[in-house]
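Researcher: First entry.
Model:
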Amino acid sequence: MAPARRQSIPGELSKAAEALKAAGEQLNAELGNRAHSTGAISQLAATIGNLAPTGLYPSDYCYNRINKGSRWPPMFEQIEQGLYRYLGPQHPFTGPVYWRQAGTRDRPVGQWENGQLTLRIDPHLVVPGPDEPAVAGVEENQWETEAFESLLHSLALENSNRTLTFLARAIEHHREGNWDDAIGNLRKVLECVLREVAAAHSLRCRGTELGNARYRDSQDVRTYLQDEDLLARQETRALAAVYGLLSEYGAHANEASEDLAQLSRSLTLALSDFVMGRFQRALDE
Protein backbone atom coordinates (compact mmCIF):
# COMPACT_ATOMS: atom_id res chain seq x y z
CA MET A 1 0.00 0.00 0.00
CA ALA A 2 1.39 3.40 -0.92
CA PRO A 3 2.01 5.74 2.00
CA ALA A 4 -0.79 8.23 2.67
CA ARG A 5 0.32 11.75 3.53
CA ARG A 6 -1.79 14.31 5.35
CA GLN A 7 -0.96 17.58 7.00
CA SER A 8 -2.41 18.38 10.41
CA ILE A 9 -4.60 21.20 9.13
CA PRO A 10 -8.12 21.09 10.58
CA GLY A 11 -11.18 22.12 8.64
CA GLU A 12 -14.44 23.04 10.35
CA LEU A 13 -14.46 21.19 13.67
CA SER A 14 -17.33 18.99 14.78
CA LYS A 15 -19.11 19.76 18.05
CA ALA A 16 -17.25 16.90 19.73
CA ALA A 17 -13.88 18.14 18.46
CA GLU A 18 -14.66 21.72 19.55
CA ALA A 19 -15.60 20.49 23.02
CA LEU A 20 -12.48 18.33 23.37
CA LYS A 21 -10.30 21.18 22.13
CA ALA A 22 -11.81 23.59 24.66
CA ALA A 23 -11.46 21.00 27.44
CA GLY A 24 -7.80 20.38 26.60
CA GLU A 25 -7.04 24.10 26.56
CA GLN A 26 -8.80 24.65 29.89
CA LEU A 27 -7.07 21.72 31.59
CA ASN A 28 -3.68 22.90 30.39
CA ALA A 29 -4.41 26.44 31.55
CA GLU A 30 -5.52 25.30 35.00
CA LEU A 31 -3.22 22.32 35.63
CA GLY A 32 -0.30 22.78 33.28
CA ASN A 33 0.80 20.89 30.19
CA ARG A 34 0.66 17.41 31.68
CA ALA A 35 -1.27 14.21 31.04
CA HIS A 36 -4.96 14.13 31.94
CA SER A 37 -7.22 11.12 32.39
CA THR A 38 -9.84 10.08 29.86
CA GLY A 39 -12.53 10.73 32.45
CA ALA A 40 -11.32 14.26 33.23
CA ILE A 41 -11.13 15.21 29.55
CA SER A 42 -14.43 13.59 28.54
CA GLN A 43 -16.36 14.96 31.51
CA LEU A 44 -15.13 18.52 31.04
CA ALA A 45 -15.74 18.35 27.29
CA ALA A 46 -19.27 17.08 27.94
CA THR A 47 -19.94 20.02 30.26
CA ILE A 48 -18.47 22.58 27.87
CA GLY A 49 -20.26 21.25 24.80
CA ASN A 50 -23.46 20.11 26.54
CA LEU A 51 -22.81 16.65 25.10
CA ALA A 52 -22.83 13.10 26.44
CA PRO A 53 -19.35 11.91 27.54
CA THR A 54 -19.90 8.62 25.69
CA GLY A 55 -19.28 10.44 22.40
CA LEU A 56 -16.07 12.16 23.53
CA TYR A 57 -12.92 10.04 23.30
CA PRO A 58 -9.45 11.60 23.31
CA SER A 59 -8.19 8.38 21.71
CA ASP A 60 -10.15 9.33 18.57
CA TYR A 61 -8.15 12.55 18.24
CA CYS A 62 -4.63 11.25 18.86
CA TYR A 63 -1.37 11.97 17.07
CA ASN A 64 0.33 8.77 18.15
CA ARG A 65 -2.60 6.31 18.06
CA ILE A 66 -5.08 5.43 15.35
CA ASN A 67 -8.17 3.22 15.27
CA LYS A 68 -11.28 2.75 13.18
CA GLY A 69 -13.02 5.43 15.21
CA SER A 70 -10.29 8.04 14.68
CA ARG A 71 -11.40 11.56 13.81
CA TRP A 72 -9.69 14.62 12.37
CA PRO A 73 -7.86 16.72 13.49
CA PRO A 74 -5.56 15.07 16.05
CA MET A 75 -4.97 17.12 19.19
CA PHE A 76 -3.86 14.69 21.93
CA GLU A 77 -0.84 12.50 22.58
CA GLN A 78 -1.46 9.25 24.45
CA ILE A 79 1.09 8.97 27.26
CA GLU A 80 -0.18 5.63 28.52
CA GLN A 81 -3.47 3.79 28.63
CA GLY A 82 -6.14 6.23 29.85
CA LEU A 83 -3.80 9.26 30.02
CA TYR A 84 -3.53 11.95 27.33
CA ARG A 85 -1.61 15.19 26.93
CA TYR A 86 -3.32 17.98 25.02
CA LEU A 87 -1.14 19.41 22.23
CA GLY A 88 -3.78 21.04 20.04
CA PRO A 89 -4.47 20.88 16.31
CA GLN A 90 -1.66 21.76 13.90
CA HIS A 91 0.98 20.78 16.44
CA PRO A 92 4.39 20.05 14.84
CA PHE A 93 4.30 16.53 16.25
CA THR A 94 7.08 14.08 15.51
CA GLY A 95 6.80 10.43 16.47
CA PRO A 96 5.36 7.02 15.54
CA VAL A 97 1.68 6.15 15.16
CA TYR A 98 0.44 2.90 16.73
CA TRP A 99 -2.56 0.72 15.98
CA ARG A 100 -3.86 -2.35 17.80
CA GLN A 101 -5.79 -4.71 15.57
CA ALA A 102 -8.24 -7.10 17.22
CA GLY A 103 -6.39 -9.91 18.96
CA THR A 104 -2.93 -8.38 18.45
CA ARG A 105 -0.51 -6.07 20.20
CA ASP A 106 0.33 -2.48 19.33
CA ARG A 107 2.29 -2.06 16.14
CA PRO A 108 3.66 1.04 14.38
CA VAL A 109 1.69 1.87 11.24
CA GLY A 110 2.89 5.37 10.48
CA GLN A 111 5.11 8.30 11.38
CA TRP A 112 4.66 12.01 12.07
CA GLU A 113 7.45 14.34 11.04
CA ASN A 114 7.07 17.96 12.10
CA GLY A 115 3.27 17.91 11.75
CA GLN A 116 3.06 15.79 8.61
CA LEU A 117 1.79 12.22 8.71
CA THR A 118 2.81 9.21 6.64
CA LEU A 119 0.60 6.12 7.11
CA ARG A 120 1.78 2.71 5.97
CA ILE A 121 -1.49 1.07 7.06
CA ASP A 122 -4.84 2.80 7.49
CA PRO A 123 -7.16 0.85 9.87
CA HIS A 124 -10.18 2.33 8.08
CA LEU A 125 -9.20 0.35 4.97
CA VAL A 126 -8.34 -2.96 6.64
CA VAL A 127 -10.75 -5.81 5.82
CA PRO A 128 -10.91 -8.83 8.20
CA GLY A 129 -9.39 -12.01 6.80
CA PRO A 130 -11.21 -15.34 6.46
CA ASP A 131 -10.12 -16.43 9.94
CA GLU A 132 -10.99 -13.08 11.53
CA PRO A 133 -14.77 -12.61 11.42
CA ALA A 134 -15.97 -9.05 11.67
CA VAL A 135 -17.58 -8.26 15.02
CA ALA A 136 -20.12 -5.47 15.35
CA GLY A 137 -18.14 -2.57 16.75
CA VAL A 138 -19.09 0.19 19.10
CA GLU A 139 -19.98 2.59 16.28
CA GLU A 140 -22.37 0.08 14.73
CA ASN A 141 -24.24 -0.25 18.04
CA GLN A 142 -24.48 3.48 18.70
CA TRP A 143 -28.27 3.24 18.90
CA GLU A 144 -27.94 1.05 22.01
CA THR A 145 -25.86 3.71 23.73
CA GLU A 146 -28.21 6.51 22.72
CA ALA A 147 -31.24 4.62 24.04
CA PHE A 148 -29.42 3.96 27.33
CA GLU A 149 -28.46 7.63 27.73
CA SER A 150 -31.98 8.80 26.94
CA LEU A 151 -33.56 6.53 29.56
CA LEU A 152 -30.90 7.38 32.14
CA HIS A 153 -31.54 11.10 31.76
CA SER A 154 -35.33 10.77 31.62
CA LEU A 155 -35.32 9.11 35.06
CA ALA A 156 -33.05 11.84 36.48
CA LEU A 157 -30.98 9.29 38.37
CA GLU A 158 -28.20 10.50 40.64
CA ASN A 159 -24.60 10.24 39.43
CA SER A 160 -25.68 9.85 35.79
CA ASN A 161 -22.52 11.57 34.56
CA ARG A 162 -20.40 9.12 36.55
CA THR A 163 -22.27 6.22 34.96
CA LEU A 164 -21.78 7.68 31.48
CA THR A 165 -18.09 8.24 32.19
CA PHE A 166 -17.66 4.54 32.95
CA LEU A 167 -19.48 3.74 29.70
CA ALA A 168 -17.24 6.13 27.77
CA ARG A 169 -14.17 4.43 29.23
CA ALA A 170 -15.55 1.00 28.30
CA ILE A 171 -16.11 2.11 24.71
CA GLU A 172 -12.65 3.64 24.48
CA HIS A 173 -11.00 0.50 25.85
CA HIS A 174 -13.03 -1.57 23.37
CA ARG A 175 -11.76 0.54 20.47
CA GLU A 176 -8.19 0.06 21.66
CA GLY A 177 -8.59 -3.70 22.05
CA ASN A 178 -8.32 -3.68 25.86
CA TRP A 179 -11.11 -6.20 26.33
CA ASP A 180 -10.67 -6.86 30.07
CA ASP A 181 -10.62 -3.13 30.88
CA ALA A 182 -13.70 -2.62 28.70
CA ILE A 183 -15.55 -5.35 30.60
CA GLY A 184 -14.38 -4.00 33.97
CA ASN A 185 -15.89 -0.61 33.20
CA LEU A 186 -19.11 -2.22 31.96
CA ARG A 187 -19.43 -3.90 35.36
CA LYS A 188 -19.23 -0.44 36.94
CA VAL A 189 -21.94 0.81 34.57
CA LEU A 190 -24.31 -1.98 35.58
CA GLU A 191 -23.43 -1.54 39.25
CA CYS A 192 -24.12 2.22 39.08
CA VAL A 193 -27.48 1.75 37.36
CA LEU A 194 -28.71 -0.83 39.87
CA ARG A 195 -27.57 1.26 42.83
CA GLU A 196 -29.14 4.47 41.60
CA VAL A 197 -32.42 2.81 40.63
CA ALA A 198 -32.66 1.24 44.09
CA ALA A 199 -31.80 4.53 45.79
CA ALA A 200 -34.25 6.52 43.67
CA HIS A 201 -37.05 3.97 44.16
CA SER A 202 -36.57 3.97 47.92
CA LEU A 203 -36.69 7.76 48.07
CA ARG A 204 -39.41 8.46 45.52
CA CYS A 205 -41.70 5.49 46.09
CA ARG A 206 -41.10 4.70 49.78
CA GLY A 207 -40.13 8.12 51.08
CA THR A 208 -36.98 6.82 52.83
CA GLU A 209 -33.27 6.80 52.14
CA LEU A 210 -31.89 3.46 50.99
CA GLY A 211 -29.05 3.61 53.47
CA ASN A 212 -25.36 3.77 52.71
CA ALA A 213 -24.55 0.18 53.71
CA ARG A 214 -27.21 -1.29 51.44
CA TYR A 215 -26.39 1.16 48.64
CA ARG A 216 -22.78 -0.02 48.56
CA ASP A 217 -23.52 -3.76 48.65
CA SER A 218 -24.34 -5.05 45.17
CA GLN A 219 -26.12 -8.16 46.49
CA ASP A 220 -28.24 -6.10 48.90
CA VAL A 221 -29.15 -3.79 46.01
CA ARG A 222 -30.40 -6.74 43.93
CA THR A 223 -32.30 -8.08 46.94
CA TYR A 224 -33.98 -4.71 47.42
CA LEU A 225 -35.01 -4.59 43.76
CA GLN A 226 -36.51 -8.08 44.08
CA ASP A 227 -38.28 -7.31 47.36
CA GLU A 228 -39.84 -4.24 45.76
CA ASP A 229 -41.04 -6.25 42.75
CA LEU A 230 -38.76 -4.49 40.30
CA LEU A 231 -37.19 -7.88 39.63
CA ALA A 232 -38.56 -11.41 39.70
CA ARG A 233 -36.47 -14.08 41.42
CA GLN A 234 -35.20 -15.56 38.15
CA GLU A 235 -34.36 -12.10 36.87
CA THR A 236 -32.33 -11.41 40.00
CA ARG A 237 -30.42 -14.64 39.40
CA ALA A 238 -29.75 -13.67 35.79
CA LEU A 239 -28.46 -10.26 36.87
CA ALA A 240 -26.20 -11.86 39.48
CA ALA A 241 -24.81 -14.26 36.86
CA VAL A 242 -24.03 -11.45 34.41
CA TYR A 243 -22.50 -9.36 37.20
CA GLY A 244 -20.31 -12.31 38.13
CA LEU A 245 -19.24 -12.75 34.50
CA LEU A 246 -18.29 -9.08 34.21
CA SER A 247 -16.41 -9.22 37.50
CA GLU A 248 -14.51 -12.38 36.54
CA TYR A 249 -13.26 -11.29 33.13
CA GLY A 250 -12.90 -7.62 34.00
CA ALA A 251 -10.46 -8.44 36.79
CA HIS A 252 -8.11 -10.75 34.85
CA ALA A 253 -5.81 -9.30 32.23
CA ASN A 254 -5.56 -10.97 28.81
CA GLU A 255 -8.34 -13.50 29.45
CA ALA A 256 -11.18 -11.69 27.66
CA SER A 257 -11.83 -11.69 23.91
CA GLU A 258 -13.43 -9.20 21.56
CA ASP A 259 -16.51 -11.42 21.24
CA LEU A 260 -16.89 -11.52 25.02
CA ALA A 261 -16.37 -7.75 25.32
CA GLN A 262 -19.08 -7.14 22.72
CA LEU A 263 -21.44 -9.57 24.46
CA SER A 264 -20.72 -7.91 27.80
CA ARG A 265 -21.59 -4.51 26.37
CA SER A 266 -24.88 -5.73 24.91
CA LEU A 267 -25.84 -7.52 28.15
CA THR A 268 -24.93 -4.52 30.30
CA LEU A 269 -26.99 -2.07 28.27
CA ALA A 270 -29.93 -4.46 27.84
CA LEU A 271 -30.14 -5.32 31.55
CA SER A 272 -29.67 -1.68 32.56
CA ASP A 273 -32.48 -0.64 30.23
CA PHE A 274 -34.64 -3.46 31.60
CA VAL A 275 -34.21 -2.38 35.23
CA MET A 276 -34.69 1.30 34.44
CA GLY A 277 -37.81 0.41 32.47
CA ARG A 278 -39.23 -1.42 35.48
CA PHE A 279 -38.52 1.63 37.64
CA GLN A 280 -40.24 3.89 35.11
CA ARG A 281 -43.30 1.62 35.24
CA ALA A 282 -43.33 1.83 39.05
CA LEU A 283 -43.25 5.62 38.87
CA ASP A 284 -46.11 5.65 36.38
CA GLU A 285 -48.39 3.44 38.50
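Researcher: Second entry.
Model:
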Amino acid sequence: MVKKTVQQHQKELLFRVLVAVVLWLVFFVISYININPLVEYLKTEAEKIGYNLIYVRVQDVLLQELRLAAIMALLIDMPVIIYEICRFVFPIFETIKIKILLTIGIFVAIIFFVVGIVFSYKIILPFTLTYLSSVGNAVSITGMVSFKEYISFYIMMLFVMGIVFEMPLFFLILNKVGILTVERMKGIRRYFIVVSFLLAALITPPDVVSQVMVAIPMIILYEVSLFLCKIINHSSKKKENLAGNEVYDGN
Protein backbone atom coordinates (compact mmCIF):
# COMPACT_ATOMS: atom_id res chain seq x y z
CA MET A 1 0.00 0.00 0.00
CA VAL A 2 1.41 3.42 -1.00
CA LYS A 3 1.74 5.75 1.96
CA LYS A 4 0.25 9.23 1.58
CA THR A 5 1.99 12.43 2.60
CA VAL A 6 0.58 14.73 5.30
CA GLN A 7 -0.63 17.13 2.60
CA GLN A 8 -2.46 14.31 0.80
CA HIS A 9 -4.16 13.27 4.05
CA GLN A 10 -5.19 16.87 4.69
CA LYS A 11 -6.62 17.21 1.19
CA GLU A 12 -8.51 13.92 1.54
CA LEU A 13 -9.88 14.97 4.94
CA LEU A 14 -10.97 18.35 3.56
CA PHE A 15 -12.66 16.66 0.60
CA ARG A 16 -14.57 14.19 2.80
CA VAL A 17 -15.65 16.96 5.20
CA LEU A 18 -16.85 19.07 2.25
CA VAL A 19 -18.85 16.14 0.85
CA ALA A 20 -20.60 15.63 4.21
CA VAL A 21 -21.22 19.36 4.74
CA VAL A 22 -22.53 20.03 1.21
CA LEU A 23 -24.93 17.07 1.43
CA TRP A 24 -26.04 18.26 4.89
CA LEU A 25 -26.84 21.69 3.41
CA VAL A 26 -28.86 20.05 0.62
CA PHE A 27 -30.75 17.89 3.12
CA PHE A 28 -31.25 20.95 5.36
CA VAL A 29 -32.94 22.92 2.57
CA ILE A 30 -35.13 19.94 1.65
CA SER A 31 -36.02 19.33 5.32
CA TYR A 32 -36.91 22.97 5.91
CA ILE A 33 -39.13 23.11 2.83
CA ASN A 34 -41.01 20.05 4.14
CA ILE A 35 -40.92 20.88 7.87
CA ASN A 36 -44.60 21.83 8.27
CA PRO A 37 -45.95 18.26 8.60
CA LEU A 38 -43.46 17.55 11.42
CA VAL A 39 -44.40 20.76 13.25
CA GLU A 40 -48.10 19.96 12.85
CA TYR A 41 -47.50 16.44 14.18
CA LEU A 42 -45.67 17.72 17.28
CA LYS A 43 -48.39 20.32 17.85
CA THR A 44 -51.15 17.68 17.55
CA GLU A 45 -49.35 15.32 19.94
CA ALA A 46 -48.96 18.15 22.47
CA GLU A 47 -52.65 19.04 22.25
CA LYS A 48 -53.65 15.39 22.80
CA ILE A 49 -51.77 15.42 26.09
CA GLY A 50 -53.26 18.76 27.10
CA TYR A 51 -50.63 21.35 26.17
CA ASN A 52 -51.37 24.49 24.18
CA LEU A 53 -48.17 25.46 22.40
CA ILE A 54 -47.38 29.16 22.21
CA TYR A 55 -44.41 31.28 21.15
CA VAL A 56 -43.05 34.17 23.20
CA ARG A 57 -40.69 35.92 20.78
CA VAL A 58 -41.63 36.77 17.21
CA GLN A 59 -38.76 34.69 15.80
CA ASP A 60 -39.31 31.59 17.97
CA VAL A 61 -41.28 29.51 15.48
CA LEU A 62 -38.84 30.23 12.65
CA LEU A 63 -35.81 29.38 14.80
CA GLN A 64 -37.35 26.11 15.98
CA GLU A 65 -38.29 25.13 12.44
CA LEU A 66 -34.68 25.76 11.40
CA ARG A 67 -33.51 23.74 14.39
CA LEU A 68 -35.74 20.80 13.51
CA ALA A 69 -34.66 20.98 9.87
CA ALA A 70 -30.99 20.97 10.93
CA ILE A 71 -31.51 17.87 13.08
CA MET A 72 -33.47 16.08 10.36
CA ALA A 73 -30.73 16.91 7.84
CA LEU A 74 -28.08 15.59 10.24
CA LEU A 75 -29.96 12.30 10.70
CA ILE A 76 -30.35 11.87 6.94
CA ASP A 77 -26.71 12.80 6.39
CA MET A 78 -25.43 10.46 9.13
CA PRO A 79 -24.82 7.44 6.83
CA VAL A 80 -22.72 9.68 4.58
CA ILE A 81 -20.78 11.06 7.57
CA ILE A 82 -20.10 7.56 8.90
CA TYR A 83 -19.07 6.35 5.44
CA GLU A 84 -16.65 9.26 4.94
CA ILE A 85 -15.13 8.75 8.41
CA CYS A 86 -14.65 5.03 7.75
CA ARG A 87 -13.10 5.66 4.32
CA PHE A 88 -10.63 8.08 5.91
CA VAL A 89 -9.78 6.03 9.02
CA PHE A 90 -9.85 2.41 7.77
CA PRO A 91 -6.63 2.61 5.68
CA ILE A 92 -4.76 3.13 8.99
CA PHE A 93 -5.58 -0.44 9.97
CA GLU A 94 -3.83 -3.10 7.94
CA THR A 95 -5.67 -6.21 9.14
CA ILE A 96 -9.12 -7.10 7.86
CA LYS A 97 -10.11 -8.36 11.33
CA ILE A 98 -9.80 -4.89 12.89
CA LYS A 99 -11.78 -3.31 10.04
CA ILE A 100 -14.55 -5.89 10.48
CA LEU A 101 -14.64 -5.33 14.26
CA LEU A 102 -14.85 -1.55 13.77
CA THR A 103 -17.66 -1.96 11.22
CA ILE A 104 -19.60 -4.22 13.58
CA GLY A 105 -18.98 -1.80 16.47
CA ILE A 106 -20.31 1.16 14.50
CA PHE A 107 -23.33 -0.84 13.33
CA VAL A 108 -24.14 -2.00 16.88
CA ALA A 109 -23.69 1.54 18.27
CA ILE A 110 -26.17 2.90 15.70
CA ILE A 111 -28.69 0.18 16.55
CA PHE A 112 -28.42 0.88 20.30
CA PHE A 113 -28.80 4.62 19.72
CA VAL A 114 -31.90 4.12 17.56
CA VAL A 115 -33.40 1.70 20.10
CA GLY A 116 -32.84 4.32 22.82
CA ILE A 117 -34.60 6.99 20.76
CA VAL A 118 -37.54 4.67 20.01
CA PHE A 119 -37.79 3.69 23.70
CA SER A 120 -37.84 7.35 24.70
CA TYR A 121 -40.38 8.25 22.00
CA LYS A 122 -42.74 5.34 22.69
CA ILE A 123 -42.52 5.03 26.48
CA ILE A 124 -40.63 7.75 28.38
CA LEU A 125 -41.87 10.87 26.57
CA PRO A 126 -45.60 9.98 26.53
CA PHE A 127 -45.53 8.91 30.19
CA THR A 128 -43.52 11.93 31.38
CA LEU A 129 -45.51 14.51 29.40
CA THR A 130 -48.85 12.98 30.38
CA TYR A 131 -47.89 12.85 34.05
CA LEU A 132 -46.64 16.44 34.11
CA SER A 133 -49.83 17.57 32.36
CA SER A 134 -51.98 15.69 34.88
CA VAL A 135 -50.26 17.54 37.73
CA GLY A 136 -51.45 20.83 36.27
CA ASN A 137 -54.91 19.49 35.50
CA ALA A 138 -55.30 18.30 39.10
CA VAL A 139 -55.28 21.93 40.25
CA SER A 140 -57.21 23.21 37.19
CA ILE A 141 -54.23 24.96 35.59
CA THR A 142 -54.09 24.93 31.78
CA GLY A 143 -50.72 24.09 30.30
CA MET A 144 -49.54 26.79 27.88
CA VAL A 145 -46.06 25.68 26.91
CA SER A 146 -43.54 27.58 24.83
CA PHE A 147 -42.98 25.88 21.48
CA LYS A 148 -39.24 26.38 22.01
CA GLU A 149 -39.29 24.71 25.45
CA TYR A 150 -41.42 21.84 24.20
CA ILE A 151 -39.06 21.13 21.28
CA SER A 152 -36.03 21.42 23.59
CA PHE A 153 -37.56 18.94 26.04
CA TYR A 154 -38.47 16.54 23.22
CA ILE A 155 -35.01 16.62 21.61
CA MET A 156 -33.20 16.39 24.94
CA MET A 157 -35.15 13.30 26.08
CA LEU A 158 -34.64 11.54 22.74
CA PHE A 159 -30.91 12.32 22.65
CA VAL A 160 -30.29 11.43 26.30
CA MET A 161 -31.91 8.00 25.96
CA GLY A 162 -30.03 7.39 22.72
CA ILE A 163 -26.75 7.96 24.60
CA VAL A 164 -27.90 5.97 27.64
CA PHE A 165 -28.59 2.93 25.46
CA GLU A 166 -24.93 2.97 24.36
CA MET A 167 -23.99 1.81 27.87
CA PRO A 168 -23.82 -1.95 27.12
CA LEU A 169 -21.40 -1.33 24.25
CA PHE A 170 -19.33 1.04 26.40
CA PHE A 171 -19.04 -1.44 29.28
CA LEU A 172 -18.32 -4.36 26.92
CA ILE A 173 -15.38 -2.43 25.44
CA LEU A 174 -14.03 -1.55 28.90
CA ASN A 175 -14.39 -5.20 29.93
CA LYS A 176 -12.73 -6.49 26.77
CA VAL A 177 -9.65 -4.29 27.17
CA GLY A 178 -9.37 -5.26 30.84
CA ILE A 179 -10.19 -1.88 32.40
CA LEU A 180 -13.43 -3.04 34.01
CA THR A 181 -13.79 -6.67 35.11
CA VAL A 182 -17.03 -8.45 35.99
CA GLU A 183 -15.99 -8.55 39.66
CA ARG A 184 -15.32 -4.82 39.61
CA MET A 185 -18.71 -4.16 38.01
CA LYS A 186 -20.39 -6.17 40.77
CA GLY A 187 -18.47 -4.20 43.38
CA ILE A 188 -19.46 -0.76 42.07
CA ARG A 189 -23.09 -1.71 41.37
CA ARG A 190 -24.46 0.14 44.42
CA TYR A 191 -22.47 3.26 43.56
CA PHE A 192 -23.66 3.14 39.98
CA ILE A 193 -27.28 3.20 41.17
CA VAL A 194 -26.58 6.42 43.09
CA VAL A 195 -24.65 7.90 40.15
CA SER A 196 -27.54 7.00 37.79
CA PHE A 197 -29.97 9.12 39.79
CA LEU A 198 -27.45 11.96 40.07
CA LEU A 199 -26.83 11.94 36.31
CA ALA A 200 -30.56 11.74 35.64
CA ALA A 201 -31.06 14.79 37.86
CA LEU A 202 -28.42 16.70 35.89
CA ILE A 203 -29.58 15.85 32.36
CA THR A 204 -33.35 15.98 32.82
CA PRO A 205 -35.78 18.76 33.79
CA PRO A 206 -36.14 19.38 37.54
CA ASP A 207 -38.93 16.89 38.17
CA VAL A 208 -38.75 13.52 39.90
CA VAL A 209 -40.68 11.61 37.22
CA SER A 210 -38.27 12.47 34.39
CA GLN A 211 -35.30 11.62 36.61
CA VAL A 212 -36.72 8.23 37.59
CA MET A 213 -37.71 7.44 33.99
CA VAL A 214 -34.08 8.02 32.90
CA ALA A 215 -32.34 6.47 35.94
CA ILE A 216 -34.26 3.16 35.89
CA PRO A 217 -33.28 2.26 32.28
CA MET A 218 -29.67 3.16 33.13
CA ILE A 219 -29.69 0.71 36.04
CA ILE A 220 -31.37 -2.01 33.94
CA LEU A 221 -28.84 -1.47 31.13
CA TYR A 222 -26.01 -1.76 33.66
CA GLU A 223 -27.35 -5.16 34.71
CA VAL A 224 -27.67 -6.15 31.04
CA SER A 225 -24.06 -5.06 30.49
CA LEU A 226 -22.92 -7.12 33.46
CA PHE A 227 -24.79 -10.17 32.16
CA LEU A 228 -23.30 -9.79 28.66
CA CYS A 229 -19.78 -9.38 30.09
CA LYS A 230 -20.24 -12.60 32.08
CA ILE A 231 -21.32 -14.52 28.95
CA ILE A 232 -18.45 -13.16 26.83
CA ASN A 233 -15.86 -13.83 29.55
CA HIS A 234 -17.18 -17.37 30.04
CA SER A 235 -17.04 -17.98 26.28
CA SER A 236 -13.47 -16.63 26.08
CA LYS A 237 -12.31 -18.83 28.98
CA LYS A 238 -13.93 -21.85 27.34
CA LYS A 239 -12.03 -21.21 24.11
CA GLU A 240 -8.76 -20.73 26.03
CA ASN A 241 -9.30 -24.03 27.87
CA LEU A 242 -10.04 -25.87 24.63
CA ALA A 243 -6.94 -24.37 23.02
CA GLY A 244 -4.88 -25.36 26.07
CA ASN A 245 -6.19 -28.92 25.96
CA GLU A 246 -5.36 -29.20 22.24
CA VAL A 247 -1.80 -28.05 22.89
CA TYR A 248 -1.49 -30.49 25.79
CA ASP A 249 -2.83 -33.39 23.66
CA GLY A 250 -0.41 -32.51 20.89
CA ASN A 251 2.50 -32.75 23.28
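Model: Note on the second entry: The chain has two domains: 1-146, 166-242.
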